Amino acid sequence: MIPCNERFEAHCLEWCDQRQNISVEENKRKYLASNTQQNTFALYRIDGCVIKDGERCDFLLLKCEENGIIAYFIELKGSDLTRALEQINASIDKLLPKLKPHLAVHARIVLTKVNAPDIKGSDYIKLSKKIRQLGGTIKQQVRLIEEKL
Questions:
Q1: How many CB atoms lie within 10 A of CB 64?
Q2: pTM for the whole thing?
Q3: pLDDT tens by residue, 36-89
Q4: From 24, 29, 57, 58, which residue has the greatest number of CB atoms within 10 Å?
């Protein structure tokens, strides 16, 4: 199996190591993950690097295990949830062939604010269904997502 740090262009790799605290931040929006098991993760910049044009998310966090990959597509967005969903959906479509074999594909969206009302529209339902079929989950929060990986 191809190692996580060799899945995409080397210059798009932000880091690949066993850090306990994983942090991805942009414009006061932050994704934090606790890696207490000290598994090896790789973080790629997608926006403008792995995918240079078209719809794309900001980052891709990969955990490579012996039997497959666990992928976290991360979008740090202002208040446009619909656009964030489209960007993650497009990124999954473009990058999934390079993530084989995959165990799970997750979506993480951190917004600055959510325009009221926060109704889960057809884009959310469509992405949620795709993520479930890929064995993952979708999480969306304002300013910060924290989780244990």
A1: 23
A2: 0.93
A3: 998 999 999 999 999 999 999 999 999 988 888 999 999 999 888 889 999 999
A4: 57
CA atoms within a 13 Å half-sphere pointing along the CA-CB vector of 137: 4
Q: Which domain holds residue 58?
A: 4-148
Number of domain units in the chain: 1
The per-residue pLDDT for range 1-43, each reduced to its tens digit, is 678 888 999 999 999 999 999 999 988 899 999 999 989 999 9
Biggest distance spanned by C-alpha atoms of the chain: 45
Q: Residue 50 is which amino acid?
A: V
HSE, CB side, 13 Å, CA atoms: give it for residue 122: 0
Q: How far apart are CA 86 and CA 126, in angstroms?
A: 10
- DSSP classification of residue 112: S
Residue 100 is given by DSSP the state -
Q: What is the DSSP string of 23-90?
A: EEEETTEEEEEE-TT---EEEEETBTTTB-SSS--SEEEEEEETTEEEEEEEEEESS-HHHHHHHHHH
Letter string b/e over residues 7-23, b meaning 16 or more CB atoms within 10 A of that residue's CB: bbeeebbeebeeeeebe
